[in-house]
Amino acid sequence: MSAPAAEPVGPYVIAWLVLLLLLGVSVASAYLPIGAWHPVMSFGIAATQAAIVFLIFMRLRGRPSLKWVFAGAGFFWLFLLFAMSAVDYFTRSGYPLRP
Amino acid sequence: MASAQLQVQYTDLRQQSETAQLGMWVFIATEVLFFGSLIWAYVVYRTAYPLQFRLAGHDSVILLGSINQVILLTSSLTMVLAIRAARAQRQRQLLDLLLLTALLGVAFLGVKGYEYSLDAASHAVPVLDFLFKPGYRPPAEMFWTFYFIATGLHALHLTIGIVLVLILAARAARGAFSRGYDAPLEVIGLYWSFVDTVWLFLFACIYPLGRSLS
Fold first, then answer.
1. pLDDT band at B1 (very low <50, low <70, confident <90, very high)
2. Measured between CB atoms, does B88 come within 8 Å of chain A?
């Protein structure tokens, strides 16, 4: 039996290069005077990188498509955790504190 | 032989592999909540004490954090290429890529250990040896507590990943992964890349902080 053809390596390498580029952008933006936008930049880039890892390296886009439900469930519960906790913390009087 | 790997409750190896992958995704969902709660605690205290977190974060070593992110992203690439090699029945390449993945994991731990030694040298270890630098107030120590708990838990996950990848390599060396049977590779590959993803968020929590402070 002859060995089957390997799937193309290109998409993985491109994803890796984009991930490294995003790391560079994240580090560079940390030194820019953008004030309150810093956490938006760093977490936005982290979320973009995570999406690339999930879709390409963890092959969320491939079979079985039921994976979307399983992966989505984790993030749905995470959303509930964040949302319900935020309802508590961000409606407390005197929060956030400014030491 | 491939057929010997098929368990009785599945119709074929593909169904078996897909079921195993779904199981790993369930585990990953629990891990998302595990690290998610940790990061939520970080969000609460960073929002409460923004200046203290920026001051403390400024003292983390962003160069080593960045090098480690490059190492982990590269290891995710080598892991997925290992699975690709297995599918194409390239046993030698599979083994090399698995060993390279484990090696990159060890390199990450080495860099992390060196970084911990630098943190310790600058007296940034809460409870044991913590020096309040100019401008530091108690919430700065809270940042470093998060730093050690979060990166420590991540390192523990990575250590488990390295052991799992080495077990895969030992099995690959014996020719266990013929075409059609790749469930363990797929499942450990998911775990490995997920641990990589956790680092992306921990990086965002720790290293970019306070870099624009004069």
1. very low
2. yes
**Does residue A58 belong to any structural domain of this protein?**
yes
The per-residue pLDDT of chain A, averaged, comes to: 88
Reported as a pLDDT band with limits 50, 70 and 90, residue B151 is: very high
pTM, 2 dp: 0.92
* Inter-chain CB proximity B36 and A82 less than 8 Å: yes
Q: How far apart are CA B148 and CA B154, in angstroms?
A: 10
**Which of A92-96, B84-88, B152-156, B175-179 has the least mean pLDDT?**
A92-96
Establish, for the pair of chains A and B, how many residue pairs have beta carbons separated by less than 8 Å. Answer: 149
Q: Is A54 a domain residue?
A: yes
In a domain, A38, yes or no: yes
The domain made up of B26-206 has a fold known as: Four Helix Bundle (Hemerythrin (Met), subunit A) (1.20.120)
Nearest to A57 among B28, B137, B193 (CB): B193
- CB distance from B190 to chain A under 8 Å? yes
Domain count, chain A: 1
Residue range B113-128, pLDDT digits in tens: 999 999 999 999 998 9
Q: Is A72 within the bounds of a domain?
A: yes
